[in-house]
Design goal:
Length: about 100
């Protein structure tokens, strides 16, 4: 699966990319219709100290793209939450696809 990593006001991190890739690979194993992923890491200058690390992931799948994002205190938490939201959406999509076959 093609995965593009984009950093917005964040310095690139190989560790973060590996962490995200592992999570995405698990999704890909479960949902083989995923074509590619676009990942964005962003920081938000918020006044609240416990948030501001944003992970956005857009998946290319047959039909409309699937998108989720999360704003957490660190990127690992944001990525995990985003992946979890994507999993829910993918599960719904898979069920819909199966009813059309």
């Amino acid at each position: 699966m093609d995965t593009n990593f984009n950093y917005v006001h964040v310095s690139a991190s190989e560790r973060l990319e590996e962490f995200t890739k592992e999570k995405l690979d698990k999704l890909k194993e479960r949902f083989d219709f995923i074509v590619s992923a676009e990942v964005f890491y962003k920081t938000e200058n918020s006044t609240s100290k416990d948030k501001g690390r944003i992970a956005e992931i857009q998946l290319s799948v047959p039909g409309p793209r699937i998108f989720a994002s999360a704003n957490e205190e660190n990127f690992d938490m944001a990525v995990s939450k985003t992946i979890s939201e994507l999993k829910t959406q993918l599960q719904k999509k898979k069920e819909k696809m199966q009813t059309h076959h």
